[in-house]
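Class prep. Write one:
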Amino acid sequence: MAEPDFTATGVRIGRRLRSLTRAGQIRIHGGRLELLTSYGSEIDSAPLSTVSAGKPWFAQDDKALATVNGKRYSLILGDHDPAPGETGPPSAFRFLEAVRRAGGHLSRG
């Protein structure tokens, strides 16, 4: 199995005012974006050609927004301590860059 293009763990994933998971995962692999719970259960996934992602201009560096299958998710990527051996938590910028490289659409938050 090939390595994913982007992986982030410990991601807070929410919809509107509801938190779906406080330690979720984001994976970009094979042209798809997957939002997963901490246990690996799928919250949502879609081909990157249909995904729109962006960063609100007023938000901190660790926050991004993604629209997957018409549902808007808020993602907080830097809300955890890095795992042993990691340089630090992934930033929203790295997530947005991975979405752009894989063929997704970038939007203004």
Observations:
- The beta strands are 6-15, 18-29, 32-36, 42-47, 52-55, 63-68, 71-76, 105-108.
- The helical segments are 92-102.
- The chain is about 10% helix and 50% strand.
